[in-house]
Amino acid sequence: MIHDPRLLDALIARQSTPAAYLCAPAPDDETLKRLLQAPESAPDHGSLHPWRFLVIRGKGLDALGNLFVEAYRQRVPDASEAMLERERERALRAPLIVAAIARIVPDHAKVPEVEQLLAAGAATHQLVLATEALGFGVIWLTGDRAYDPVIHARLGLTDDERLLGLINIGTRAESAPTKERERRPATLTVWDGSDPVE
Q: Is pTM, for the whole model, over 0.70?
């Protein structure tokens, strides 16, 4: 069991690195294999492991950029060349993208779909945290691309899979902004069994 107050401090201070500030090097294969062990300890009712990860880098990023353009053209038929180029560049900002995919077991007798999605989300977040723990910058991105059926089909998603997002990973540039997020103070709301107050 981990007992290190620095872990709690790191979780409280955690922040994403904008994709434009993620540069090479990205994790190598051995490091990636280690990082992909972190999701295995995510809460997972029924031990279904309802997730998988698709690694995209090198030529795959160029292909992803072309796919983003193709999908955007279908969503916005009158898109300008500048808009299409901006869409292509979304795939080329970070040296590594990991597509996080939820794998749903439909009509499971004990584990409803929402619990499977939560497990996949928890697994993905553990990948994000593990990546940061090794000193890399990372951001979990969604947007229209995460919900586009053209992109889903080309990435090989089945009807029972959901694209949870594209995890952009790289080395954090020295010029990356540090944004002080507004952190809400913790509050304790205790339920003692009495009727809710209206």
A: yes
Give pLDDT tens digits for 84-107. 999 999 999 999 999 999 999 998
Rg (CA), the chain: 19
Alpha carbon distance 108, 72 (integer Å): 35
CATH architecture of 15-172: 3-Layer(aba) Sandwich (3.40)
Whether 176 contacts 21, CB under 8 Å: yes
Q: Is 74 in contact with 136 (CB distance < 8 Å)?
A: no
Judged against a pLDDT cut of 70, whether residue 186 lies above it is answered with yes
Contact 7, 157 (CB under 8 A): no
Distance of CA 31 to the CA centre of its chain: 18
What are the residue ranges spanned by the domains of the chain? 15-172
Contact 126, 74 (CB under 8 A): no
